[in-house]
Amino acid sequence: xxxxxxxxxxxxxIEAYIQAAKTGDVGLLFPIFHEKARLFGEGPxxxxxxxxxxxxxxxxxxxxxxxxxxxxRARLVSVKQMGPSAVAVVEEDGxxxxxxxxxDIFSLSRIDGAWKIVNKTYTHRDxxxxxxxxxxxxxxxxxxxxDMSWRDHLVMLLTFGATAEHCLxxxxxxxxxxxxxxxxxxxxxxxxxxxxxxxxLAVAREExxxxxxxxxxxLLLGAPAALGRDxxxxxxxxxxxxxxxxxxxxxxLACFVYAEMPEVHRPFRDSMDPDLSxxxxxxxxxxxxxxxxxxxxxxDGTMPLDVHRVGQLYQEITTVLRDHxxxxxxxxxxxxxxxxxxxxxxxxxxxPTPHDLDAEGNRVEDEDxxxxxxxxxxxxxxxxxxxxxxxxxxxxxLVARVDWKPSQMVAESFVRVDRAATRTExxxxxxWIAKQGEAPHLSVTKHLKSSDELSHFDRFMAAYRELKxxxxxxxxxxxxKDVCSNPTTRxxxxxxxxxxxxxxxxxxxxxxxxxxxxxxxxxxxxxHIFQLAKTQPVDRPNIRSLLxxxxxxxxxxxxxxxxxxxxxxxxxxxxxxxAGPPFEMPYSFTLPDADVDVWRQHRELIGTSxxxxxxxFNAASDxxxxxxxxxxxxxxxxGAESYLRxxxxxxxxTQAWFEAILAGEGPKGAARS
Length: 673
What we know:
The structure is a single chain. By secondary structure, this protein is an alpha+beta fold. It folds into three domains: about 5-125, Nuclear Transport Factor 2, Chain: A (Roll), CATH 3.10.450.50; about 150-350 and about 380-475, no CATH class; about 500-665, Up-down Bundle (Ferritin), CATH 1.20.1260. Helices cover about 45% and strands about 10% of the residues. It is built from 17 helices and ten strands. Helix 3 runs antiparallel to helix 8, helix 4 (about 185-220) packs antiparallel against helix 11 and helix 6 crosses helix 7 (about 275-290).
């Protein structure tokens, strides 16, 4: 039996248990419990031990169905399976009239091809206890280490949050760049593809805002900015899934949906619309099939599912941040507010559609916006009811937008960059991240005031369903170019990692190297801006402001180079497909201590980019077959040559600017504005 089939079979066993526990229908239990199965646990009442054989347990279950009070809910938290053995963890809440809570641990064995529960142990929790977040009972990666303070632990969590935002943003960009629009596509398909790209890029831009907001929270705690992509074992415990740059497919979108999905109960069909439930089941199955491989398994052999939603990390950050005993008020550096990133600096060009305000400054709702001030819908029409899908989980109901399709292209980017000087402002900033889709279980329906306010989960779920419908009707069709996964400019030795694809053609290699240089420049500029903010006034023009313009310029360069790479042959053999933007990390993101050395590093990177450009043009001028091949590849990437010449001229100007700054430096380490 395949691993995916095993997981599906175990899911069905647990679903049957939940239904039987809810209703008292023990007829559902006989097929799934081994005849010698036993139940062990404590309470209720507290302190009373229960040790029952299967038949005694079934009698008790039939006499006292758990939904007797009408509030019962349950979910499958985790499954760990090794060969014919498995352990499943289920959480139950709202049991009987007293709203008792349980955590159940089932031991299962595959016997004669069928999965059977051979043992159930449980722990009893007080009435009204909230269900733990997914993964709390797996390997608890977010437990504070004894050699760390709570502030240190919080800084670590925020650092990993920044890392997760960075990783997701890069993967979203790669998927968007891979999309193709062909002239022979029907008009409606061309429109869909363009708008999938539009919405994925919208999410990527919002991730940039989240990344900057997390930097601000790190500064508030007196910690350094975190702009890299940590690949340590510690960090990997918090990533949604193993990092991979892939063209857009249903599998890719499934990963995006899973990373952004809310905390929902299993089985999905008990807590949401059947259509959405079916789609989410398909998403989870695809993620399992993709990562249920030896290379992605934990040391104990289990697959890292459930613990890798981004929302769980933000929930833990919020929980620690709220605790005054763990994080006292003196941990916050109010003075950092002045040099934190702001929306005025970074949100330009992404302003949402303005709304009318009344005399007191409150938003005036449009007549067609069926939402009142507390976020609840005032429209009880059948159409409005169809537009809202309740997703249970957390203290408030969640909503997935099913009335909106990405092909409508009505959703704008809402790039938020929040600053914080206090605990309350920091929690508010995290709440806004939640409302955009990172941790939907923290948010309420009021963030869905209109069709232009969509969470990341909304956007990806709608795109997934639309793409699946398109592929089901056109088997074999793909919305993406034949772009490689995980492109790299590295040359062996050492050997390439599994799944990496080397950029081998001269043009692909040079463009890939230039892309990496510009990527490093952008991140170096960002880090330098945070450094300069501490020494230069932020309320008037200075070198920091000019450097900020360079960041936006590098964003444009990355977009343009990525567009050229996906139109450039990866190797000299056309059958090997197209290249892609490598987004490779440098050996270090640590900037020099002396400001003069930071400027020298910027200058050297510009010089390295100029050298790569020079080599490419020299290769194209070779009169032999190699030079003709380079010219052909440049021609395939329409506009490449003219762009590279313009970039070269701009880099020469930037180099001269850096030289002027360096010439104006005083003693080593002093920066002049």
